[in-house]
Write a structure and sequence with these properties.
With 83 residues, the chain is mainly alpha-helical. The N and C termini lie close together (8 Å).
C-alpha cells in the first residue's frame, strides 16, 4: 500500500501470482507492512513446497532476482506510483 497500490491492485497482484506460480497466498500477508523482498521470500517458500513445480531452480533464481530489487523498482514494474 505504501507504494501506491490500491486494495484492488493488491488483489490483482495476488491473483496473478497465484495463477502464474500455481500456489496460494495468504491475503493477510499482502495487507500487512511487508517489503517486496518479504513477498519474494514467501513466494520462494511456497513454490518450493508445491508439488506442481518441477523446475524449482529457475523459480529460485527468479525469486532471488526480485528480492534484490528495491520497492521502487518493483512498483515501477507493476505500473504503480510510490506514495
Amino acid at each position: 500500500m505504501a507504494l501506491g497500490v490500491t486494495s484492488l491492485g493488491l488483489m490483482r497482484i495476488k491473483s496473478r501470482l497465484e495463477s502464474d506460480f500455481m500456489i496460494r497466498i495468504d491475503p493477510a500477508m499482502l495487507w500487512q507492512e511487508c517489503s517486496c523482498g518479504d513477498l519474494a521470500s514467501e513466494l520462494h517458500c511456497r513454490v518450493l513446497a508445491s508439488p506442481l513445480w518441477a523446475n524449482a531452480e529457475a523459480v529460485e533464481r527468479l525469486a532471488e532476482e526480485v528480492a534484490q530489487m528495491d520497492d521502487e523498482d518493483v512498483a515501477h514494474e507493476l505500473g504503480a506510483t510510490p506514495a
